Amino acid sequence: MANSLHVKKGDRVKVIAGKDKGLVGDIIEVLPEQGRVIVEGVNVVKKHTPDRSAQTGSKDKGGIITTEAPIDASNVQLVVKVDGKEVVTRVGYERREVTKRRPDGTEYAATRSVRIARKTGKEI
Question: Global pTM?
Answer without folding.
Answer: 0.80
